[in-house]
Amino acid sequence: MQSTTLILLLALLATAAFFFGRGRSLSLVGGPGHGPALHSLPGYYGYFVAIWCVLPALLLMSGWMLLESRVVTALVIAGLPESYQLMPEGQLNLLINNIQNLASGDVVSVAVDESMQAAATELNGYLTKSRQLLAAFALGLACLGGALAWRRIDRDFRARNRVEAVVRWLLIGASSIAVLTTIGIVLSVLFEAIRFFQKVPATEFLFGTTWSPQTAIRADQVGSSGSFGAIPLFAGTMLITSIAMVIAVPIGLMTAIYLAEYSTTRVRGIAKPLLEVLAGIPTVVYGFFAALTVAPWLRSTGDSVGIAVSSESALAAGLVMGIMIIPLVSSLSDDAINAVPSAMRDGALGLGSTRSETMTKVILPAALPGIVGGILLAVSRAIGETMIVVMAAGLAANLTANPFEAVTTVTVQIVTLLVGDQEFDSAKTLAAFALGLMLFVVTLCLNVLGISVVRKYREQYD
Amino acid sequence: MNIVVMTDNPTEKQDSTSPVVEVNSLEQSTQHRLQVALPEFTEQATDVGGETVGNVRAENPFMVAENVNVYYGDNHAIRDVSLEIGKKQVVALIGPSGCGKSTFLRCLNRMNDSIDTARVTGMITLDGEDINRKAQDPVALRARVGMVFQKPNPFPKSIYDNVAYGPRIHGLAVDRAELDSIVHTSLERAGLLKEVKDRLEDPGTSLSGGQQQRLCIARTIAVNPEVILMDEPCSALDPIATARIEDLMDELCEDYAIVIVTHSMQQAARVSRRVAYFHLGHLVEVDDTDRVFTNPRHKLTEDYITGRIG
Ligand SMILES: Nc1ncnc2c1ncn2[C@@H]1O[C@H](COP(=O)(O)OP(=O)(O)OP(=O)(O)O)[C@@H](O)[C@H]1O
Ligand SMILES: [Mg+2]
After folding, report:
1. Are the Cβ atoms of B142 and A349 closer than 8 angstroms?
2. Closest residue on chain A to B224 (Cα)
3. Distance between CA A266 and CA A36 in Å, rounded?
4. What is the CA radius of gyration of chain B?
5. Which long-range contacts (CB under 8 A, 24 or more apart) does B117-120 make?
6. Which helix (H) or strand (E) holds B72?
7. A393 occurs within a structural domain
């Protein structure tokens, strides 16, 4: 039986269990309207029975599916001729792989012999049997669990508390998935970075000024030992980020001020969603906008005034990234400005301030910490931005402060390091993890700083 | 002073055969038809929508509101209110919550301008000039008609800068020394100087609630307004701080006209010369404070001040 069918059946059973449970609790007290005689509302008894019906069965199912392939493979191997069983592990794995492909009708990479064919048939047989067993067990367990739960119902049974406990664990489980995944990613990046630092000294990475990650792929190759000085990458990142912030901060801030203080409700009602659309444009679209529109335009403008602008320039990437970040800056600043109590505004207006005096002398100083926090968040967004710089900033690791030259960024290099074929434990590949770790640490610090500034400021008025 | 008594039926005021006689008041009511009845008719008025009972005129009028209506969208929040505010006098606005006291107060310095839905009709004059005329700059108006709010709202700046804010934006001081002296006299008059003179650079928000409210008053008088509007200035304060602010009002009214909204009958009785009772957007009764509290002429006023409504 297919697992989707099984799940559907379980859902049906659960629904039935709900009504049985509810019905039993009602019949105990002689019908609806006798609520107080029961410890919990009748619905809770229903949920209780349904949970006991479904939960054990689902657990059984997931455990079974985890183990299934392992058990079935072991059985298949046991059924293979002696000669195969004595093969080294790598070859055996390959063989099993081929048998599995054969069984599921996929392309097979070697000539198929009789024993393989037999093994494939056997494999399919085991699988079918396994599914049948699973279905039988799961449905049986569901009925059993439901029945046991159903029998436990009586007037004083605390069904609500049981259900709440299950709900609570469910929620805990869901949120720990996110947290654990984050921790896992951080740890794996950390360990890979440590492996990198075993090959390349951390001082060279942190303070070296040359970035040329070409390493010898084969031991007998000469000449390319690679050099991993990350300074040009961070300098490039900073250059582009600064350009982006120079664009985004004033424009975003002024937008926020206009929307929060000057615009009519109608303008605001139109402009805010529009800005949100701007925030929702995929970065790859900004990327080709930067590469195909802005960069050539900058180049030709530069030519006409006699400035040499390379066709992939930090300026083009920074400009477009700035535009991308405007909505972020403006919406965070808008929040900060709106969080200033209107009593402040009234107080200033009541003393005869003009709107702009109110804005610059009272509201902005009061909102400043929130705005700064928002800007820090925007900076960390800019630093981590990848698509635009990949398309518009170039790959040349120049150490320069000239915005008309091509530079490269940390994120771009991570992408180029990992695109293409290379060994997984070469210094070149591992360098990506080290860069990733650095990036993560920097943006994490900025975020923590930004969030704590924003929060501190919130407390002032609450 | 004229004595004004309501008729039971507001339509009667147009009726010349009515027993109610229309006379000119002893002072300025020539521009206004006011209902004056003979003393033997002084039974209490009980209707809500009728003409204001009592005397809306002040001896020495400085701010005059004539037939003011305020609408918030479709909500008719102030209904045809006329009231005069005299020089050097405290007028208290009382009435149940939501009756429009704050709304009326905010008309007087055009703070309702900043509410999109609010619409004000009628005529309000300050020293004879229409404050809603085209040429009137609301910013200049608010420098003449200052406002103190219910919740103390010092700016997140130092105590000094809070008080110096107004003089700075209006360019009232030519140099630092003059600014210093304005700040000092304002704090002095607000009765706060003694407590803060050693900590003028501390943030205004570090003061206690009562001190903050006096700081806000100091901030308002630093601009040297001619009228001060106060919307429940003591509602967040303890009795001692309240008493200080009431004393302060006694002093201030020697120079300013003061309009205060309050929910405390005692406070109205203590600080005000005249009391105006609002009910559902109507100005029901206005008169000298002692007269209203001893002998209210409208049923609603009596109910309110004796604690039966509100
Ligand atoms: N900004 C506003 N927008 C729309 N309606 C408003 C606004 N402010 C006040 N109102 C309405 O106007 C009416 C009068 O309100 P107002 O604040 O003047 O009452 P109040 O007498 O000051 O009450 P309180 O004693 O509670 O302060 C109320 O019905 C209120 O709902
Ligand atoms: Mg009010």
Report:
1. yes
2. A351
3. 53
4. 20
5. B117/B72, B117/B73, B118/B70, B118/B71, B118/B72, B119/B70, B119/B71, B119/B72, B120/B68, B120/B69, B120/B70
6. strand B61-72
7. yes
A211 located within any domain? no
Residues of the domain holding A236: 227-461
Q: Domain residues of chain B, as ranges?
A: 19-153+225-305
The alpha carbon of B104 and the centre of ligand 2 are apart by a number of angstroms equal to 9
Of A341, A351, A460, the CB nearest to B166: A351
Domain boundary among A157, A177, A201: A157
Within B165-273, strands assigned E span: 227-231, 257-261
**What 3-state class would DSSP assign to A341?**
coil
**Min Cα separation B232/chain A (Å):** 14
> Cβ neighbours of residue A195 under 8 Å, at least 6 residues apart?
A425, A430, A433
Of A100, A133, A157, which one is at a domain's C-terminal end? A157
Q: Is residue A398 part of a domain?
A: yes
Which residues of B lie inside 8 Å of A (Cβ-Cβ)? Answer: 109, 111, 114, 116, 139-143, 146-149, 151, 153-157, 165-166, 169-170, 205, 216, 219-220, 223
Residue B78 CA to ligand 2 centre (angstroms)? 13
Together in a domain, A47 and A143: yes
Residues paired with residue A416 on neighbouring β-strands, in sequence order: none
The Å distance, Cα A55 to ligand 2 centre, comes to 57
Q: What is the CATH number of domain B19-153+225-305?
A: 3.40.50.300
pLDDT tens series, chain A, 462 aa: 678 888 999 999 999 999 999 999 888 887 776 656 788 888 899 999 999 999 999 999 999 989 988 888 888 888 887 777 778 888 888 888 888 888 888 777 777 778 888 888 888 888 899 989 999 999 999 999 999 999 988 888 888 999 999 999 999 999 999 999 999 999 999 998 998 888 888 888 888 888 887 765 555 555 556 778 888 888 889 999 999 999 999 999 999 999 988 888 889 889 888 888 888 899 899 998 888 999 889 889 888 888 888 878 889 999 999 999 999 999 989 988 988 888 898 999 999 899 899 998 899 888 888 898 889 889 988 998 888 888 888 777 888 888 888 888 888 888 888 887 666 677 788 888 899 998 999 889 988 888 887 777 665 654
Tell me which residue has its CA closest to atom 26 in ligand 1: B97
Which residue type sits at B171? G
Which one of B103, B229, B282, B284 would you pick to mutate in the ligand 1 pocket, going by the greatest count of ligand atoms within 8 A of its CB?
B103
Q: Which residues of chain B have a CB within 8 Å of the CB of A343? A: 149, 151, 153
Task: Give, using CA atoms, the residue closest to atom 31 of ligand 1.
Answer: B98
Q: From B221, which residue of chain A is nearest by alpha-carbon distance?
A: A351
Q: Is the dihedral of CA A208, A212, A213, A219 positive or negative?
A: negative
Residue A451 falls inside a structural domain: yes
- Separation of alpha carbons B294 and A302, rounded Å: 86
CB contact under 8 Å between A351 and B146, yes or no, is yes
- Regarding whether A240 and A104 lie in a shared domain, the answer is no
Q: What is the ipTM of this complex?
A: 0.77
Using a CB-CB distance cutoff of 8 angstroms, which residues of chain A are in contact with residue B157?
365
Residue from A351, A362, A368, A462 whose CB has the most chain B CBs within 10 Å, to mutate: A351
Number of domains in chain A: 2
Pocket test for ligand 1, best of B101, B230, B261 (most atoms within 8 A of CB): B101
Q: Are residues A262 and A145 in the same domain?
A: no
Domain CATH code at residue A419: 1.10.3720.10
Please tell me the pTM assigned to this model: 0.71
- DSSP letter at B45 equals B
